[in-house]
Amino acid sequence: MELRRETLSLTTYEAYVGKARFRLIPGLGSIAVRKLTVRDIDVFYRSLREAKLAASTIRQIHNILAGSLDQAVRWGWRNDNPARWATLPPAHQTEVRPPSPAEVMAAIEGADPGSPSSAGSLRRPGAGVGRWGRSGGRPLISPPVSW
Predict the structure, then answer these.
(1) CA–CA separation, 4 vs 106, rounded Å?
(2) Is the dihedral of CA 31, 33, 66, 86 positive or negative?
(3) What does the alpha-carbon distance between residue 1 and residue 56 come to, in Å, rounded to a whole number?
(4) Cβ neighbours of residue 15 closer than 8 Å, sequence gap 6 or more
(5) Which of 10, 32, 120, 130 could be bridged to 113 by S-S, CB 3.0 to 4.6 A?
(6) Alpha-carbon distances of 58 from 67, 81, 90, rounded to whole Å
(7) How far apart (Å, rounded) are the C-alpha atoms in residues 25 and 90?
(8) Phi and psi dihedrals of 74, rounded to 5?
(9) DSSP 122
């Protein structure tokens, strides 16, 4: 993980560390890297599915494990990467359906014209300028926060 720290954003790195600390190490940490098998990884992934983790989360954990084992191969700790042969849960693709022009117009018509973040302000020039001003030629979405 430390090798990837400089190439990842802080939040991504922290998410990877969290998945390693709370899922990978408890699930596979008792098995030596050289002795880890495809079957061990499949059993681990099955336990994650039984714990009701989303397929996308299991795939993220897989990517962390596979990357770590790739590094182990580069360092000569292993001859192969068993994660590359493990059985992953299917990736579920959700169909994205953009709104129709009629649905967009209905949303605009139903918006509160007094709200600076409202879609109704898209139709009125200068809407949202009011007391919040402008920033870079764009209306501000929300008031400034003061503590």
Answers:
(1) 47
(2) negative
(3) 20
(4) 60
(5) 120
(6) 14, 17, 10
(7) 23
(8) -60, -35
(9) G
Domains of the chain listed by start with CATH number: 2-85 (1.10.150.130), 101-139 (no CATH)
The torsion region of residue 125 among left (phi > 0), alpha (psi -120 to 50) and beta comes to beta
Cβ atoms of 120 and 129 within 8 Å: the answer is no
Give the tens place of pLDDT for each residue, 2-56: 555 667 788 888 888 999 899 999 999 999 999 999 999 999 999 999 999 999 9
Three-class secondary structure of residue 134 per DSSP: strand
User: Which tokens belong to 32?
Assistant: 């030596």
Q: List, as one string, the DSSP characters of 41-97.
A: HHHHHHHHHHTT--HHHHHHHHHHHHHHHHHHHHTTS-SS-GGGGSPPPPPPPPPP-
- 57-82: pLDDT as tens digits: 999 999 999 999 999 999 999 999 99
Residue type present at position 107: A
What is the length of the chain? 147
Selection from 64, 63, 81 nearest residue 72 by Cα: 81
